[in-house]
Amino acid sequence: MAQDLRELLKGKSLEKANLSKGHEERFEALLDKKMLQTEIKPSFNWMKVAAIAIVMLGVTFFGYQYLSDFTGNTTDKNSNPIVNADENSIEKTNQISLGDLSPDLKKVEEYYLMGINVQLASLKIDSENKDLVDGFMLQLANLDKEYKHLSIELNKEGPSEATITALIDNLKLRLELLFKLKNKLNELKKQENEPINNI
């Protein structure tokens, strides 16, 4: 099956091909044009990457702002101000976070936080679903408070398998809660559209 190319070309004489007049100049001009196009593309790709990074930072920022609005409104009136002041001072120093423990844990934390922020940013709240969304946001706020308490425990007592697992489970639970909210909102939307389709 496989044949040696040298054996096929042994008896043939290689003729020098005559090029048409100006062929070499046209080829060089075309080659120069293609080279200029390829030089422009890498900078364009960097622009795409930069634009995506800016969008993701914006989504993260607005998602955080949106979530912090709900956590600010859910303070317990009977809470002890001394305990809250102590928690706030520990949060400010925040020596160790989940991402500081290992690169793998940092990736896990970033994955869940990015997913949470993307889901929060994609929520469409209107007057018909506001009560449902508010209920889910209160649950998210409670999970966020628990995450802060676990972070404080991580700083006070040092990293332990139970604390790390609880922190990851908390992030996972928040993301699952947001997925459930999106499913509920989709169900509500379908229920609203069914009477229109039946008519």
Structural features:
199 residues; mainly alpha; 7 helices
In brief:
With 199 residues, this protein is an all-alpha fold.
Describe the 3D structure.
The chain has 199 residues and is mostly helical. It has a domain at 41-74 and 96-190. Helix content is 78%, strand content 0%. It has helices at residues 5-8, 23-72, 81-93, 98-101, 103-121, 130-157, 161-198. Helix 5 packs parallel to helix 7 (161-198). The radius of gyration is 30 Å and the shape is elongated.
Layout: helices, strands, pairs:
Blueprint: H1 5-8, H2 23-72, H3 81-93, H4 98-101, H5 103-121, H6 130-157, H7 161-198
The run of helices and strands is: HHHHHHH
- Characterize the largest beta sheet: strand count, sense, and whether it forms a barrel: none
Q: pLDDT average, as an integer?
A: 75
- The coarse silhouette is elongated
**Global Rg:** 30 Å
Low-pLDDT ranges: 73-94
In terms of DSSP E residues, the strand content is under 5%
* CA(first)-CA(last) distance: 70 Å
Proportion of residues in helical segments = over 70%
Number of discrete helical segments: 7
Q: What's the quaternary structure here?
A: single chain
**How many strand elements?**
0
